[in-house]
Amino acid sequence: MTAATLPALLVANATEHPGGVAMREKRRGIWASRTWADYATDVRILAAGLTELGFRRGDKLAVIGDNRPALYDTMLATQALGGLPLPLYQDSNAEELGFVVAHSDARVVVAEDQEQVDKLLALGDGIAAVEHIICVDPRGMRAYTDPRLVLHSEIVERGREADRADPGRFDAEVAAGKPSDIALISYTSGTTGQPKGVMLSHAGFLTIVEKFLVAESRWQEGREQFFSYLPMAWVGDTIFSLAFALRGRFTVNIPEEPETVTRDLREVGPTIFLAPPRIWENVLRDVEVRMQDATWIKRRIYRSFIDRAARNEADRMQGDRPHRSAGARVVDRAGEVLLYGSLRDQLGLGRVRSAYAGGAALGDEAIQRLRGIGVNVKQLYGSTEMGLVTLTPDDDVVPDTVGRPLPGVDITVSDDGEVLVRSDSLFDGYYKNPEATTAAMTPDGFFRSGDCGYFDAEGRLFVLDRAKDVAKLADGTTFAPQIIENKLKFSPYIREAVTVGDGRPFVAALINIDIGSVGKWADKHSVSYAGFTDLSGKAAVYDLVATEIDRVNAGLPDALRIRRFLCLHKELDPDDAELTRTRKLRRRLIGERYAVLIDALYGETAAVQARITVTYEDGRVAESEALVPVRTLDSYDANGAGTVAAPVEGTASR
Description:
- By secondary structure, this protein is an alpha/beta fold.
- Helix 12 packs across helix 13.
């Protein structure tokens, strides 16, 4: 199939496969289907309605809300008119929205519901360039009088009339689109500062798709089911829910609400599934938590078989494929019957043939467990600026690798260890920021990823961490914090972990407990508590966390073992700017905000007084204080402090 733009792909699908199911959405407990013909008609009518508002080629339109057909329609309608859509994170606060909407020069914002409209109206003159705010769900807004407000249903009705009056206009607009046109402005998560608007072309998206289809042999055009639940503002969702779905004619399934994702996922049973590490970690954590309430026989069966599955996969990933005796094969088959199959079904992954981890590194223990129970999860590598540039083949999954370069993608590693990428799918620059665009590229056309990595002898790419985050202990031992943090977060009791030690004598950690799993553990062990802060400071909880850290330390060389830790008195939160909206650590800000706690990790004190600052979505700030214990691990041998050992594979200086 040849098409110059994403809307052109939609039109082609509607023409060649009008009755195929393009999208399904759950409404009031019932899955409603939409064909390719209906999909194209809805986009056509909405495009006509936007035209009636005065929307023209080159205009910008912001979209904010949960995954909804109307919002995907809006993005395609905007592209069909030659405009530039920019999806925003639905959990952004008003200040974050205000920056992106103002910086992008958006003339129109399409908001899902009252919650999102309220954020926009609270910005006042901060988004003075916005002429229209289109609301999809008008519930609760009868008394709103802002002249910029218009209902989505009104735009659709005006569009229907305009399309009847000039039925050829939409086709002419789509035909005028060129592959080089900007298809999307995707704002980065802003780990080190304000987000940057990444301009991505139709040609870039379509190139990613074609390269990926060459490397991924499992996909069958017109037969795949995809579950669309990740934030629309994340470029990974755009690539899968729009680009891949249009090119491969996937059926995109949209859950009823964010709260029903787990249940709806089981009902859909997708064949393709994408998740960032935090989702995969949550999946494994939830299983562990549920097993705490199971009968002893179920817990025994689970623990026996899940550990066996992980060991088998670890052996396979290490290249150790011993002959399986008849008895071992029988036990493995019993595991499939008693645990693995039912567990995959309960997770909604029973039909998945291709599962992907993208957006950040997924720990090797998590991959081993998932693949061990039969989930074909593989690492991807890319970024907003690069799109997807690597894929792990089904038969070549090894610990910590993100796979091999896609066909036609040139990846190299600079002398200082930075991963450099050259491809015709790269971004077209940062919006209104030519200086940053120039700085991001090498003279010979490679994009500076900012990631530290290396290739092994077989050509697999290993990405360790952000280059600026790779740390060096006082004795010169280099380590990648993310690698150790991923191992810590494999624990069901640890939600977030921040490892520190740059310029210090040893590695230490700030731990965020998982309130759900630790809370259940506390209830079971008669540990009373009053909220997160109280629970995180309990001695019994510190003992629990220490056991989990000891497990991680056992697999680390002495020089990189965690010597001291503390449990943070509050959850790291995007609303407090400690995490990005994709839940990546903002290390610099965390280092500044928790400097007193970090210093205490390297002092003699057993506890430190810390201030708690919490920011709510409406902008309110609450402050209080807490006494945070600091624990030295019992397994720490003071006589071994400072011993230089060979670093974990892939963490050495390059």
